[in-house]
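Private note to self, pasted from the team thread so I don't lose it. Backbone tokens:
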């Protein structure tokens, strides 16, 4: 581990020119570079103070840490961003039109990268736990799109993070064939790839030494609303198991990130009637590790290990136990449509709003301002055996209804949505016509304050297969814009 030049973060940042296309490893804050982006942000600020331009085009695996999207965004060093973000400061710059943002499906992101859809990657900044003189790399707590970044980048800068030196052995790195050959994954625990990543050593410009944790924050305590939603989900899954729709011995589930899905996970784990299950998704969180330790979860696969420090240390202290139960794979595999279909899984994801016909808005507030992005929600919803979307029925102390006549932005159509759940109840939309779906959503999921309007809307809507009155379809948004409360909507 001594063949490549040792650099300071500041020296590494000097390799990155203005207008470069830069790719950073990581998936959520896990596995992201931690010091080179900060040095690059400071360099950008100095150049801006001198009246010189400096911005980069930035690609990542998904969302990142504050050192990447946060610091670079605040330094006005990002001109372009893809395919997903979750940073508050960067979000504002995107919605203000200062940063060009492409929100894309993660399942086809790797293909777009190989096709140079975003352009040629100038430099990839990759966090590793180990590296060898021949170009063999061991990633840290995330895989994401790091393999394809390394294959396509002209040059590579390494952050060697010794904090994660015990992560070796948790990775299963499989290269998706360009001819679309089937992914040879039959069982979730199959090892189909390699534990390390081999790159052209001539690409490596140098190594920056670090010893830093990922800094993952714990989820907030579950609210009563989250608890109610989780209860509805567990009751529904138990009914499906009793009906023979899913096996009584085990399930395979995908759970999106966030406080709500974490609450659902806890309820599933606490229900003795629920069978043991496996997890195939994007992010492995604290709750998944807790249930794995209790042997309620048999096996878990993700693209990142997004856990708090106590849990990460427990994994490292008991590596042999967890290596038999956890795997980190590229997002091209975790989000691969063929793999998702083959695993016959239940997909559980959160949403911003749903309309009465079953369409889902996961990304844009009032149809215009992006929150984060579509990520992998559509990958799983479209290909899962059962697609469930969960959300509170209201927001902003009841001033916003999450159940609307027509979504202001649609990420997933009713064709990919089987079940909608709020704290009010659960709407099973399978096998129902549009009008039947609307009645089911209104009666089971809408908050009582909004049911009269939604019922009246459906009754007065024009005839047709899907009944909409386009003059009043967005009345909730109009009322909120004018009065600050959707309950003031008028037909």
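Design output:
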């Amino acid at each position: 581990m001594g063949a490549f030049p040792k650099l300071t973060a500041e020296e590494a940042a000097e390799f990155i020119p203005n207008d470069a296309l830069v790719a950073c490893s990581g998936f959520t804050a896990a596995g992201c570079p931690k010091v080179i982006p900060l040095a690059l942000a400071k360099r950008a600020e100095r150049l801006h103070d001198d009246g010189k331009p400096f911005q980069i085009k930035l690609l990542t695996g998904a969302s990142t840490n504050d050192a990447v999207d946060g610091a670079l965004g605040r330094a006005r060093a990002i001109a372009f961003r893809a395919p997903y973000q979750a940073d508050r400061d960067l979000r504002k710059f995107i919605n203000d039109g200062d940063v060009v943002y492409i929100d894309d499906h993660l399942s086809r992101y790797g293909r777009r990268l190989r096709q140079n859809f975003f352009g040629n990657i100038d430099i990839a900044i990759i966090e590793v736990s180990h590296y060898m003189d021949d170009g063999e790399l061991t990633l840290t707590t995330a895989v994401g799109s790091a393999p394809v970044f390394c294959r396509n980048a002209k040059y590579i800068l390494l952050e060697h993070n010794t904090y994660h030196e015990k992560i070796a052995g948790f990775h299963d790195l499989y290269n998706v064939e360009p001819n679309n050959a089937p992914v040879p994954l039959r069982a979730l625990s199959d090892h189909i790839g390699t534990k390390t990543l081999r790159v052209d050593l001539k690409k490596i410009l140098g190594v920056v030494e670090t010893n830093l944790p990922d800094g993952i924050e714990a989820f907030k305590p579950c609210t009563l609303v989250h608890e109610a939603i989780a209860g509805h989900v567990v009751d529904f899954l138990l009914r499906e198991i009793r009906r023979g729709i899913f096996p009584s011995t085990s399930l395979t589930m995908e759970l999106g990130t966030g406080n709500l899905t974490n609450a659902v996970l806890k309820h599933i784990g606490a229900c003795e009637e629920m069978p043991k299950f496996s997890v195939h998704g994007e992010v492995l969180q604290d709750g998944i590790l807790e249930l794995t330790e209790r042997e309620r979860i048999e096996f878990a696969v993700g693209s990142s290990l997004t856990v708090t420090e106590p849990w990460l240390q427990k994994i490292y202290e008991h590596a042999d136990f967890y290596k038999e139960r956890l795997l980190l794979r590229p997002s091209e595999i975790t989000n691969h449509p063929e793999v998702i279909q083959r695993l016959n899984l239940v997909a559980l994801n959160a949403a911003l709003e749903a309309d009465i016909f079953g369409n889902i808005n996961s990304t844009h507030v009032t149809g215009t301002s992006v929150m984060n992005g579509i990520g992998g929600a559509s990958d799983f919803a479209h290909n899962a055996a059962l697609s469930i979307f969960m959300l509170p029925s209201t927001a902003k102390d009841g001033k916003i209804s999450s159940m609307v006549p027509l979504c202001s932005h649609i990420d997933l159509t009713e064709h990919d949505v089987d079940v909608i759940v709020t704290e009010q109840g659960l709407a099973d939309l399978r096998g129902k016509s549009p009008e039947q779906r609307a009645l089911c959503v209104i009666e089971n999921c809408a908050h009582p304050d909004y049911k009269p309007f939604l019922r009246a809307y459906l009754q007065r809507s024009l005839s047709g297969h899907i009944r909409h009155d386009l003059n009043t379809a967005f009345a909730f948004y109009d009322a909120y814009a004018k009065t600050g409360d959707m309950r003031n909507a008028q037909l």
